[in-house]
Specification:
Helix content is about 60%, strand content about 20%. With about 325 residues, the protein is of the alpha+beta class. It has a domain of about 160 residues: Band 7 domain (Tetrahydropterin Synthase, Chain A, 2-Layer Sandwich).
C-alpha cells in the first residue's frame, strides 16, 4: 500500500534495481521491498533460451530449400544487454514495458539466417539436403564469433538443424531421379550378376576344354611314348635279327670254308690214295695174278678163303670133270656165316 511493494525473483533471473537513475541493488534471484513510484526494476533471464526457426533459402543451383532448426543461447552479460535493450518491468513486476525481450530471439535468428544464407548459396541442392550436421557446426562457429552477438552479451550454446528439404516439386523430381538411379543400379546389379554368371560359365567351360585338351595331349604323349617304345623294341629286334643273320652268315662262311678245306683235304687224301694205288699197280705190273691173289689172301678169314676157292673152281669149271660138295660142308659154311 501507498506504493510500497514486495517482489521475489526466480533463481534464473538477474535483477537490476534502479533508483534515481542509479543501480542500488543487483543480483540473481533477489527478493526485496521497494517503493514503486521511485524505483525501476530490470529483469533479465540468464537461463537457456530457445529460438526455433524455419528459413527458405536458395541453393547455388537456384533451388528453393527449407531449413528447420533451433538456436539455443543465454544472456552471459546481463548488464551489457540491459544497456542496449529495455528489460524494465511494469508496475506489476511481471510484464515488460517494451517488446525488446521478445525481439531478442528474433535478432539471434536473423543473425543466424544471414550466415546460413551465405553457406547455402555456395552449395548445390543435393549437397545442401545432406549437410545438416556440417551446417549446424558451421553456424554455431559463425554465431560465436559474430560481433552483434558478442555486443549483446549473448552466449551461443548450440545450433540444431532438424531438416533441410527442397520444395515439393523438386522433392518429387529428386525422388524420381533417385528412384530411377536406384532402379538403374538394380538393373546394373542384375546385369553384373548375369554377366558374372556368364563369365563364370565361360571360365568353367574354358577349364573343361583346357582339361580335355590336357587329357588329349596326355593321351597323345602316351601314344607317342608307346610308338617310340615299339620303335625302340623293333630297332632292338632288328639289331638282334641283324646280329643273328650276321652270325649265321659268319657261321655259314666258316662252314663253307670248312667244307672247302674238307674237300681239299679229301681231294688231297684221294690223290694220295690214288697215287699209292697207282704206285702199287705199277709195282705189280708183270706179276702173276695168282701170286697177287695169294698175297691178298694172307690173314684173310676162312670164309673168305673158301669163297675165293669156290671162285677159282668156277673159273676153271671147264677143266673139272665132276665136283661133289656134300651137304654137311654147305651147312657148315652157312652156319659159320
Amino acid at each position: 500500500m501507498f506504493g510500497v511493494k514486495f517482489v521475489k525473483f526466480q533463481p534464473n533471473i538477474y535483477v537490476l534495481k534502479y533508483k534515481k537513475g542509479r543501480i542500488v541493488r543487483e543480483g540473481i534471484g533477489l527478493s526485496f521491498i521497494y517503493f514503486a513510484p521511485t524505483t525501476s526494476l530490470v529483469s533479465i533471464p540468464i537461463g537457456s533460451l530457445e529460438a526455433p526457426f524455419i528459413f527458405e533459402e536458395v541453393s547455388s543451383d537456384f533451388q528453393s530449400v527449407s531449413i528447420q532448426g533451433q538456436v539455443n543461447f543465454r544472456i552471459a552479460d546481463a548488464k551489457k544487454i540491459a544497456g542496449l535493450l529495455n528489460f524494465t518491468l511494469k508496475a506489476n513486476a511481471v510484464d515488460y514495458r517494451s517488446n525488446d525481450p521478445e525481439r531478442l530471439s528474433q535478432r539471434v535468428i536473423t543473425v543466424a539466417r544471414v550466415h546460413m544464407k551465405k553457406i547455402i548459396e555456395t552449395m548445390l541442392l543435393k549437397d545442401a539436403i545432406r549437410a545438416s550436421d556440417a551446417l549446424a557446426k558451421t553456424i554455431i562457429h559463425e554465431l560465436q564469433t559474430d560481433n552483434e552477438i558478442s555486443s549483446l552479451g549473448l552466449e551461443i550454446i548450440g545450433v540444431s538443424v532438424v531438416a533441410i528439404k527442397p520444395n515439393q516439386e523438386t522433392a518429387r523430381a529428386l525422388e524420381t531421379t533417385t528412384r530411377e538411379q536406384i532402379l538403374k543400379e538394380a538393373d546394373d546389379a542384375i546385369y553384373s550378376r548375369r554377366n558374372a554368371s556368364v563369365e563364370q560359365e565361360r571360365v568353367i567351360k574354358e577349364n573343361e576344354l583346357n582339361t580335355e585338351i590336357a587329357v588329349e595331349q596326355k593321351k597323345r604323349q602316351i601314344k607317342e611314348t608307346q610308338k617310340e617304345a615299339e620303335k625302340s623294341v623293333q630297332r632292338k629286334e632288328h639289331e638282334i635279327q641283324n646280329a643273328e643273320i650276321t652270325n649265321k652268315i659268319t657261321l655259314e662262311t666258316k662252314k663253307k670254308e670248312l667244307v672247302s678245306i674238307s674237300v681239299q683235304n679229301s681231294r688231297a687224301e684221294s690223290d694220295a690214295k690214288a697215287y699209292s694205288i697207282s704206285s702199287a699197280m705199277k709195282a705189280l705190273e708183270g706179276v702173276n695174278p695168282s701170286i697177287i691173289q695169294s698175297l691178298a689172301s694172307i690173314g684173310m678169314q676162312p670164309e673168305k678163303l673158301i669163297a675165293i676157292a669156290f671162285q677159282g673152281l668156277a673159273e676153271n669149271a671147264e677143266k673139272i670133270g665132276e665136283l661133289n660138295i656134300s651137304p654137311d660142308l654147305l651147312k657148315e659154311l652157312i652156319s659159320k656165316k
